[in-house]
Amino acid sequence: QVQLVESGGGLVQAGGSLRLSCVVSGSIFSINAMGWGWYRQAPGKQRELVAVITSGGSTNYAGSVLGRFTISRDNARNTVYLQMNSLKPEDTAVYYCNAPAGIKWSWGQGTQVTVSS
To answer: pLDDT exceeding 90 applies to what percent of the chain?
Structure first.
């Protein structure tokens, strides 16, 4: 079993920054050995994948966040991060981490990000 605990969300003004964290625990030897993704779900919308880091360290982003968000990981801390800069009201959502493709782990509770205009 793998547990995912997201944190770091909050209320921020447009143009501000937040750094989200996802602590991974359970039956994973090394978070570097697999890819990770950050997802978000806004009210009334489907969950979308916004950032990916592969096992090799390559990163990919949805067009809506490209140039503003950065995904990274710290294997020693079993933590995946999402640095979010230049936040916009349309970034308001609950953010989750999980595998970027294929079978997903059980979803964590997510962390709420609210961006005011």
So the answer is: 90
pLDDT by residue (tens digit) across 54-82? 999 999 999 999 999 999 999 999 999 99
Mean of all residue pLDDT scores within the chain:
96
Q: Which residues of 83-105 are buried (b: 16+ CB within 10 A; e: fewer)?
A: ebeebeeebbbbbbbbebeeeeb
Residue 25 exposed, middle or buried by CB count within 10 Å (0-12, 13-18, 19+): exposed
Q: From residue 100, how far is each of 25, 50, 117 by CA, in Å?
A: 17, 10, 30
The SS3 assignment for 53 reads strand
